[in-house]
Write a structure and sequence with these properties.
single chain; alpha+beta; 2 helices; about 30% strand
Amino acid sequence: MGQNRPWALEQSFSYNPWRLTGFGASHAAINAADLLVRDHILYHGESGQVEFVAIIGDADANRWYAEQFGNGCMVLTPSFGRVFVTEDDEALQFLCRSAPPLRI
């Protein structure tokens, strides 16, 4: 108690089961397999959401994107609209998971 622990605040935000750390994960590589539909992201500093994820080898309807461009996701932002972003695009930053839809 009373000791100066500059790492304490950083450590409290670093746990993430999806291997993305901190606010925005600007220093961490984003793996498309870690993203989920409706995740909140930043793309070039603008907030948006993941519409779908395309992974090479998946048998879903979005595999064409992965075969053409590599693993990635379709993001929706107000000024860019819909953009397919690959894993190596450093402009993509993970913010947080979206809450699951309510079932009434």
